[in-house]
Structure formats: structure tokens, C-alpha cells
Amino acid sequence: MGYVSPAKPAATCVGCYAWGVLPGRYCHACYTFGQLHQVGECASCYRDAPIKKGYCRLCWLQASLEAKGQVTVLEPFLRGLTCQQLFFSNMHRQRSKGPGPRIGRQGRRRRRPNPPSTEPDTSPDRWTQLRLPIAARRDYTGFDRRRHADLANPALCSARIAADTLAEARGWTRWIVNDVDRALVTLLSRHTPGDMIRFSELFPKLRNHGLSVERTVEVLVHVGMLDDDRIPAFDRWLAGKLSGIAPGIAVDVEAWARMLHAGGPRQRARSIQTVWSYLTEIRPVLLHWSLTYDHLREVTRDDIVTVKDALQGAKRENAIVALRSLLRFCKKTGRIFRDPTIRIRIARRPDKVILPLTPGDIGRAVATAATPAIRLILALAAVHAARPKMIRNLRLDDIDLGNHRITIGGHPRPLDELTRRALLAWLDYRRSRWPGTANPHLLLTQQTAMETAPVGKLWVTHAVRGLTATLERLRVDRQLEEALTHGPDPLHLAAVFGIDDKTAIRYANADRQLLQTAAEQGPDRDAPSEIRSATDHSNP
Q1: What is the mean pLDDT of residues 160-170?
Q2: Strand extents, DSSP E, 161-216
Q3: Which of 154, 451, 491, 497 stands the most exposed, by the fewest C-beta atoms within 10 Å?
């Protein structure tokens, strides 16, 4: 696909039937499309051509034409295609044409200009855009790179240098690097010293052009040019939960929720799940109190007892715990005079009997291990009793293949053969899929490969979601099996898995209860041989 002579006669592209002066049998776009996708039968026009998600490039262009100005999801339009609109070649991607022949590699693009100097231009004929005294919003939708780009802008130069540094440190692909560079040219060509780029201004422009918003924001934060005017998700959620509650009560509840989320003097920050659970449990109670009370100072002990008697089981325990936390905070900060939850006790629920998983449940979980990542996740949960959070936070430094050791949650363990094979398979896939990533975590996704953060919780638990043998149940089953195999010894369980003393005692008690039944007096239950053999070799 080299240089096209102007004297070459026009022809029809074999792939998309476009008419024009072509470099060969295919136009530039169809040639690139064929290099990226495999040949197959198109689900719409039934041609044997390179297909993406079941459709050829000609059908994708027709669906894009019919969906223009409506939506960005093309699948419904692809399924409803009944005709094809032919076109001239090179109409879908106009290129700038300056004077003289095109230069560069194979004559397809202009030669990139020399990197601009980072020194500001102090020549007397250079003009400067003065800042307005008001915070006017910028509109980047009318930006034209050919007419408006200023590659010598000092802010743009520093941002491009920072982008190159981050790209090398994070292992960004060349496509991400190009997208970020285009975004920075758009945002900073007219930048003046002291200006800040608002997130609400850059988002529409970058999203409409398919540029990477997250990576561009990362560069702007690095150079200190971003004004993040987004409303935090916690604030939006909290405002929704406080709607309908009396203003006097809502003020105290908001202060309490923010203290739980961010922490305070002599108070550690709680997880966001704890804040969600607390406020969700007591919101119906707060709405009921808002009908008669204007402030939490009016709540009495009888009100707490009424809430206690109206609920049962776990909901009663959770509601009283959340109300006790709220009212203790209000008493400590001087918002109320007396804590009405004092001396209100709830009987502790007895621990449920931990039952082992059946071979069928474990077999269905093993059947989901279709990728190297899922096989490794299941091995870590079923063999080493690792929690999902521990699996997400595993780092490459925690793996010692030479000494057959693995560190999970700060607790070193021997590396069995099953986990070792799953680990080697994943490392090979990781090395081939993301060779330049700088993320130190063991598990990666397409998103986290360009960052340094761990993978998300939903991604780790997605494979076994909806099954009986979830990752948590597999972890519990592994610890229970260890207790059944080596006896109800809490010290042994704590040494093997590095768990808390109370948790080890709970598993030991569950083991004693199971051994007392007639069903557990026989041989051990039959688990899948692969996991069974792995667990037998994983004990230190």
C-alpha cells in the first residue's frame, strides 16, 4: 500500500466497492481492516470478507450512516440492514492536503515537525491572550487542528513531555499515546498561564472524538492544570439518601456519614460499604422520625425500643448497631444531650453451622475456569483460601517460583503444583498481552494495565457469580476441609491460613459439630481430584 500515482486510473475496491484511485485492489481503509480482522461470512450481506463482530466493513459503514445523529451503538442498525449505499473512496476520513506531494513513510502522512522548544517565545511581535476577570466556560467543539493548533505553546510543550514520561512509566500503548497527544493539542493550544482546564469542559470534546479521557486527565493532574469540577459519587449518593428527612436530622446524619467515610479525630475511616450499609438500614427509621421530630434531640429510649421490637434477625441487629453509632457520634460532638441507645442490648445470634460444598457445586465452579485468569483465581480461593480482596492485591513480588512460595495477605504459604501451573499460564498470557505494563499487581485487565491500581472486585468475582460455590464459599470450604482433615485445632488453622483467632475457633467448632453427625462419620466427601490433590500438598 505505497504511494499512489496521480496518473493511475480509478477502480473499484474489492472490499467495500468504493470508487476511486486506489493503491491496489483495496482502498487504504479496507486494507487496514483486513490486517486487523479474520475472514469470515458477514451476517448481513453474506460475503466472505474480513469481519468485525460478525459484520464486514461495508455493513459497518452503512450502519454508521443510518445511525448518524441518533445513537452511538451500531448493533441494532447492523441487524436491520436491507441495502447498501455505495460511496467514493477516502470520503469517510478526509485528510489535510497542503501544497506539494505527500511525504513521510510510504507517502501516507506528513512528516512530523521537530519537537518545539519548551522555552517561551519572548519576541516582541508575539501576542498574548489576556485573562478575563470572569470565569468564562471554554468551548472546544469548534477546534480545528489545522487552523488553531499552536504546538509552541509552553503549557502544551510541558504537558506533552509529562505525557511521554507517564506513557513510559505506565506502559501505555502507542494508540493511547497518540490519543492523549491529540487531546492535549486540542485543550492546551490556546492555554494561557494561570488557566485551569475544567473536567466538565474537556469531557464532551474528548468523548465525542473517542479520545482517552482518563489518561488525559491523568496528564493534566500531573502538570497541575486540571480543575476537577465533578460532583463526587459519595456526595450524590448521600444527597439522595438524605432527601425527605427533616433538615435538623439530616444535618446530623450527614456529618456522621462524612465522619465514617473520611475519618476524624481518634476515629479511623470506615469502608464505603460500611457507610452504605449503615445509612441504608436506618433510613426508613429516620424518615419515620421526621414525621414527628425536627431533631435527634427529641428521640427517646422508647423510640429505640420500638425500632428494636419492629425488626427481627439480622435487620434488627444491623439497625441497632447503626443507630448506636449515629447517636454516639451526636453525643460526642454535642449535638444531643443524652444517648438513648445506652443499655439497649441485643442477644448475639448463634453462629450458623458451616456446611461443606457438594462435589456438584465445586464441579460447576471448576467448569467456569475457561481463561488463565479465572483458573488462577479459583486456585487461589479453593486451595489457599484467599479472600477476593487478597487476590486483587496480590503483587508480582509476592510470587517466589524458585522457592515454591506465595505470600497471600502477608502470610507466606507453600506453592502447590496446581496453583503453580495456573500461575505460570497466567504469567505467560500476561507477558504476551501486556508486555510493557508497569502495574506491579499480579492480575491485570485492559484498563488497569495502563495504571498501577489493582483490578476491580466485580471483575474478580464475575466468573462464579450466581453459583453456589462462590469465591467466598470456596474459601470457607477450604478452611473447613483443613479442620476436618487435621482435626479441630484452632492453632493449626491460624498457622496454615494466617486467620484471626476467633475465626479459627469458629471453624474448629464447626468441625466438631460435623464430626458428631452420622453422615460425617464415614469417609471424606469426594471433591474434584484436581483440587483435592492440590490441597493435600499445600499444607506446610
Answers
A1: 89
A2: 197-198
A3: 491
Amino acid, res. 430: R
Give pLDDT, residue 109: 53
Residues 6+ apart with CB under 8 A from 319: 281, 282, 285, 307, 308, 311
238 and 152 both lie in a single domain: no
Q: Considering the domain boundaries, does residue 479 fall inside one? A: yes
Distance CA 485, CA 506 (A): 16
Q: What is the pLDDT of residue 518?
A: 38
The residue range of the domain holding 204 is 145-227
**Overall number of domains in the chain:** 4
Residue 249 φ/ψ, nearest 5 degrees: -75, -40
Lowest model confidence (mean pLDDT) among 83-92, 123-132, 257-266: 123-132
* pLDDT tier at 97, thresholds 50, 70, 90: very low
Cell of 447: 484498563
Residues 517, 453 share a domain:
yes
Burial zone of 164 (CB within 10 Å; 0-12 exposed, 13-18 middle, 19+ buried): middle
pLDDT of residue 161: 92
Considering only residues 502 and 61, tell me which one the structure prediction assigns the higher pLDDT.
61
Cβ atoms of 409 and 386 closer than 8 Å: yes
- Which of 22, 45, 79 terminates a domain? The answer is 79
Q: Which of 353, 292, 398, 320 has the alpha carbon at shortest distance from 512? A: 353
Q: Are residues 457 and 376 in the same domain?
A: yes
Cell for 175?
A: 494508540
254 in a structural domain? yes
Q: Which of 27, 56, 79 is the last residue of a domain?
A: 79
